[in-house]
């Protein structure tokens, strides 16, 4: 019944019942409308998944560098 939503950004990821899910921020909507979408549904563009993964790698690198400075 409603208009199809367009994914704007992947906010998080999880595995539930052996299926990858993405927490998606939708175009034109705020965080109160974020929702979990199964990867198998194909509603999240690969470009957004790649951007999220690159961001997470950067965060891990920052944490590792911070730990090494503390040692």
What does this structure look like?
There is one protein chain. The chain has 71 residues and is an alpha+beta fold. The chain contains 1 helix and 3 strands, in the order βββα. The protein has one helix at 46-70; strands spanning 7-16, 19-26, 35-38. A 3-stranded antiparallel beta sheet has the order 1-2-3, covered by helices on one side. A hairpin with an 8-residue loop joins strand 2 (19-26) and strand 3. The longest helix is centred in the last third of the chain and has 25 residues, at 46-70. The chain is elongated, with a radius of gyration of 15 Å. It starts with 6 loop residues before the first strand and ends with a helix. The relative contact order is 0.18.
Topology summary:
Elements: E1 7-16, E2 19-26, E3 35-38, H1 46-70
Antiparallel strand pairs: 1-2, 2-3
Structure, briefly:
The chain has 71 residues and is an alpha+beta fold. The protein has 1 helix and 3 strands; from the N terminus they run E-E-E-H.
- Main-sheet strand order equals 1-2-3
Structural class: alpha+beta
Provide the residue-averaged pLDDT: 89
- In this structure, how is the largest beta sheet organized? 3 strands, antiparallel
| Unreliable stretches covering 5 or more consecutive residues | none
Which percent range fits the helix content?
Answer: 25-40%
Throw out a few tags for this protein.
71 residues, 1 helix, 31% strand, alpha+beta, 35% helix
């Amino acid at each position: 019944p409603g208009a199809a939503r367009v994914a704007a950004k992947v906010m998080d990821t999880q595995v539930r019942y052996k299926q990858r899910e993405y927490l998606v921020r939708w175009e034109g909507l705020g965080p109160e409308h974020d929702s979990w979408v199964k990867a198998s549904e194909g509603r999240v563009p690969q470009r957004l998944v790649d951007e999220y993964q690159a961001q997470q790698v950067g965060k891990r690198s920052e944490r590792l560098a911070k730990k090494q400075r503390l040692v």
